[in-house]
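User: Write out your own:

AI:
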Amino acid sequence: MWRRIRAILVARNREFYRDRAGLGWNIFMPILMVLAFAFIFSGPPEDLLKVGVIRGPDGATEAQSPFLATHHVTFVPVVASAEGVAKVERHQLDLLLDLSDAPGYWVNLESPRGYLAERLLLGAYAAPSQGQAPERRTVTGEALSYADWVLPGVLAMNVMFSSLWGVGFVVVRYRKNGVLRRLKATPLTPFEFLAAQVLSRLLVVLGASLIVYLGAASLLDFPMRGSYAALILVFVSGALCLISLGLIVSARLRTEELADGILNLISWPMLLLSGVWFSLEGASPAAQGLSKVFPVTHMVAAARRVMIDGAGVLDVLPEVGLLAGLALILLAVAAGLFRWE
């Protein structure tokens, strides 16, 4: 018995080692992940406070507001006061400073960090030569919990993994097992086969996402302030885009090991750079710029705007249009690259 077990063990190990592509992904993928973390979090230490700034038409300089010269404070540009005030209410900004025509600032009375930011602001105007401090405007509101913030990202992550592996891995197995060779003998065209895969996986992804959402709703009291129609459109367009991307990966590959490696190479950068687990506001500018290339970034951002900020269908149409258009392009590329054998 042990001799037979040993023979199978040796044979399986040889099969793995001889698959150089699969072996390479298993070795280099962890190294690439470490390098990715170093790339994302490179730069100086994170500042202690985060302050939003509404600048005037000519911008705001340290001469106009001495508070802007304060060290260890991240000053985030804010375009609309309503958006900034909402972030102060949720403790996402410690203070909002308005330097436009009617100078003032908003602080959350329930935020300990907001109290510290206000003391620093008033201290910057303590000297008579610095002028009069801006007008104080107070808001209240509980902090947005991490669970509330991360839930849209978790839903998007579930869509990503189910979409990529649901077609990218399965179609390669079909090719390896000879299923595609038999389908080639039928009148079925590559586009028809791929379209069926897209629709099938879309139903599975949406069903699984609905179960995850309902399960989270039964356990957590998370906010859902926007339109359900908008949320559905975001996830449908995102799933279509990612399914089409998975079909490109599976268009010509012959082994599951290589497909799994390439899918990991695609999915992990998206997972790290799309704001699923953490905000990229403190990441390097290069990482923030690269994140906009990934479809998951737009899906997560739109889902958070719907669930947390109360966005409607019209508010997320730019992201939905981008994802849907990209899905059509990727599906056309997959159909052009597809081979039955």
